[in-house]
Design goal:
The protein is mainly alpha-helical and 718 residues long. Helix content is 58%, strand content 0%. Helix 9 crosses helix 19, helix 10 runs parallel beside helix 20 and helix 20 packs parallel to helix 26. The longest helix has 36 residues. This is Striatin interacting protein 2. Belongs to the STRIP family.
Amino acid sequence: MFYQYSEGGLYSNLHSVPLKGRRWMELSMEEQRAYVMRLLDALEVTDRDKRLKVARAILYLAQGVFDECDTETDVLYWSRHNVFLLYDMGIFTALLELLSMEIDNNQACSSAVRKPAISLADSTELRVLLSIMYLMVETIRVEMEGDSPERKAAREAFKTELGSPLYNGEPFALLLFTMVTKFCSMNAPHFPMKKVLLLLWKTILLFQTSMNFFLLLNAKEDILKNVGNQTPLVKQDSLDTYNERDPFKNDDARDEEDDPEDVDSGIEGEVDPLDRDVIIQPPPPPPPLRPPTERVSFPKGLPWAPKVREKDIEHFLETSRNKFIGFTLGNDIDTLVGLPRPIHESVKTLKQHKYVSIAEVQIKREEELQQCPMTMGEEEVEETPAEILYLGMLPSLSQYVIALLKLLLAAAPTSKAKTDSINILADVLPEEMPITVLQSMKLGIDVNRHKEIIVKAISALLLLLLKHFKLNHIYQFEYVAQHLVFANCIPLILKFFNQNIMSYISAKNSICALDYPHCVVHEMPELTAESLEAGDSNQFCWRNLFSCINLLRILNKITKWKHSRTMMLVVFKSAPILKRALKVKQAMMQLYVLKLLKIQTKYLGRQWRKSNMKTMSAIYQKVRHRLNDDWAYGNDIDARPWDFQAEECALRECIEKFNTRRYDKNQNTEFTPVDNCLQSVLGQRVDLPEDFHYSYEMWLEREVFSQPIQWEGLLQAQ
């Protein structure tokens, strides 16, 4: 659970704390609190160098006073102990004030803008502050079995603190979003974006752990259970249950023959040694904390229970009524008079699998509030962390989305360097460039790892925002999703996957000897060019696999039930790109790839379906279906020509109505009460300009006496 520390680059900026010859571990709790209090006071000094030295001392405490530890377990124990102590003493609030000062430091920003090349030295103070805050957020966020009631209470207080508008009237996450937009607008090119994005991701992950989040966890467990039922996660054997080892290989060969223009020769032409039906296996699980229970056996058949929307039942009944009795009854799904018995049985089966989502309930509620504002009254909006965050992000939401996608594009392995692109390497490049082969290799690994972490943080952050806003209100989700679509998120993700995805999944851009806390406990081995080239012993990079799954889930969320966006997948020729991603033998990743292929099969034509029958079979076996879904044949009514622009415009109109009704408190609508009492209106005080009394008589002459009043016209108008 502490592996993220190494991704934050926390093995740098280490500083030991002098305690007058005494070890930190030997101090009593009172002495430790007194020492932290002295550090807290010292943070307020005006001397920048002294303040940085104190911040490094706090970072050393948060990292677990490793100089006094003999094992990695000891480091992690003391890190957790010290983090809760630091939070209890108010260190986080003090760090937040220092972070705000650094953000508003115009001198540092203007100096960085003028510099031709920015390096690690330009963001030393920011990186130390962000490292401490990241350690505190991540450590407090993770709940452990032996936590005392005091620690549990501190965790809940910290969640409330981060999710509330306590920092200048806005949540802490909004301050970090401001750093992102400031960096992407080139106003603060020295900001360490990797650390900012990691802290932003973990912050939202912490304060969004509410009752709604448990719904997400239950849904995730359901997915894992079903995916595990298809292909046990202990041995990821892809999503195949056929006689052939890889059912997609023959389809790939046909794809290359049928669509040569869709395939990048640089991708399929390379022979990857990992593309030999190697199965991705997860890392070994930790020892069980409780006796293992008996394995649950699931019945054979489709892994998911089929769902039916009320709209699907209505459409089925409309078609049946037109066919058998010649007229329709609108939205009536109960009247079955005149229909034959098989239709009765079909409707009964459909109703047994009827599923009403939270989104449908929220949309119906919003329609009622829009149609009957006086009857329904004012809506009571619960001040959840997601609601507070959305309200804060609303004025600049498009800027936040565009900034995140800019960073994702800059960090993508398929992106080419451009002179006008943003520099995301400011917090990884040293002041002096390497002069030896070993230094160059190490820097190359650091740069690639740096980009991978940025992709991981952004993909996880966007997915979290979409999930939590969808639970809070569907139109909040739709607003973020539409901004993602308008900012070209769909082609960006497809461009990300248009690479040798097996090489990306198996990349070894890490140096195990430098991972924290290993690097501070064990003796540092000699790094050679051969050891760096060999990499670690892991066959696959779980960081990159995590990013790929997140991006696929984002693509699924913004295209689901949206015909115009599904057509974008078709127009951008996503089918061959997604099929190449099926080569990664990991069940969850393949599941989301198959979902994306399923929603566009009706648009790909009969020849494509005929040439990819094993892919079609995999979709049928592994993806949830609607009982009357004609996805495999293309004769569904939704496959007919569609006014895609009108669909997006109608959705945008609904979103704007929602935002105006709920958040625009100064709206002047036709339902605003009107004062009809003459005496009350004449008795109201009207603020006039100071010089109005000088020209009052002229105004009367011009506006009243010289203007003839057409009394007959007024009477007729009445």
